[in-house]
Amino acid sequence: MKYITLTIGLFIINFAFGQHLYPEKYDDCKLSRFCLDCGDTKAEPPKDFVAEFLSNLNEKSLKKIKGSIEVQVLVDSIGKPCLLSAKNETNINSKKLRLQDGISSTDKWSPAISENVAESASVSLLLIFDNGLKSIQRREFNTKNQSNMKSVGTPEVKGSRASKLSESWTVFNQRNSKLPWDMSRAVFTDKDGIVWIGTDNGLVKMTDGTMEVFDTHNSGLKSEMYNKSETVSIRDATVDKLNNKWLIANWDAYKYDGKNWTVFDSINSPINWARKLFVDNSNNVYFTSWRGVSKYDGDKWTTIDTSNSKLPSNKTLGVFVDSKERVWIGTFNGNIRIDADKTVEYNNSDSPLKEGSISKMYEDKDGNLWFDLYNDDDKSKAGMFVLRRNGEWESLKPKNSELFTKNSINDFLLDEDKNILWIALNSVGLIKYDINNDKWETYTNENSNIPSIHVMQLTKDKNGTIWGATFAGLIKLNEK
């Protein structure tokens, strides 16, 4: 196997806070502080890296894989590697390929050294596959010259026949709009009907077709630690009952009331690397994280974790409060529901809630509860479910399809006005389910102009138009 070293540019910054460079994030790495490809002597993989790496991958997947994967490997001061993030543009899912095991199981690397002291640093490699690993190239980033980033990808599931699709989309990106970055993860509609887009380089306000950009120069948003010219990446966003905009960006949370910005971090709140946001009917704001669920009532913070509840794990994914004020929490070790006087545990229940973690919930106008259940096991029965008011469960999936067992759901939106369910399916694209006609349509970047297999979040504006944040631009449903 030939090892190729390719210099693409050089950017060194010592003792910067670590950053996930790529869209697939792996949270098992323990270090939160490291530098980006730094060191007088840079971190290097072991001499037998290729053989070891390949031996830990899925052999069957390796025989048919084609495309490229960029990996960001965190190498600590004793040379232990850990996969931090990846951008997979091959025909094989990273989990099926066993990419994380392939990286983490290699021998000790040579750590980065500055002034004769070993330090923790991340290394980025570009892996080129064509029915096997053909080459490895090292990435050295010059972020000052980096003007944009996007991820298009190859869908893991074949989409519907293009002629059978009922919808079309308008795509906004850097080339045709004021969008500051193509890669976006969040989109929501505020109480005035205005659409907001959270990108990997700032926040955008979309008013009647006009974009206003909020970045580190004109807002309270911080800059990226490794590049002061870029604004922090917004990973989730929503609006509360008072029309305050709430964002999760890097480690912190932000509140914007239309004039003033408030930052909540590990100093003035329990927040540390929050995952998702939720606002209940009493205007309490909830944050899930690996330290339980934090709740902010506008004045005080409280936390639900394993020390004060029956939460099965502090690694929480989704949280929801229904109209009966019952708190539903999804963790990676099971789900619970906290009622006023008791806690219901679902690990040993007969319901679908034993199959996966609650990622998102929604209560419709009739009181039915809609669930997105996540499980990274291909053999699980996770996916979309509805708990009807009469207590009966219903599984939502196309006949003879494994869409929701092999691919996780990033977001869903129930358009109750049209009785349409929209599902953002990771590594595929967008699913439309016409409930009245029991008709399913799968939109990918191969059969439609949806630009990426990563559709991250969905919203409906005041006119009933559906919007989606993707890793290659913003999409808007065209009017018929």
TrEMBL record:
<dbReference type="InterPro" id="IPR011110">
    <property type="entry name" value="Reg_prop"/>
</dbReference>
<dbReference type="Pfam" id="PF07494">
    <property type="entry name" value="Reg_prop"/>
</dbReference>
<protein>
    <recommendedName>
        <fullName>Two component regulator propeller</fullName>
    </recommendedName>
</protein>
<dbReference type="InterPro" id="IPR015943">
    <property type="entry name" value="WD40/YVTN_repeat-like_dom_sf"/>
</dbReference>
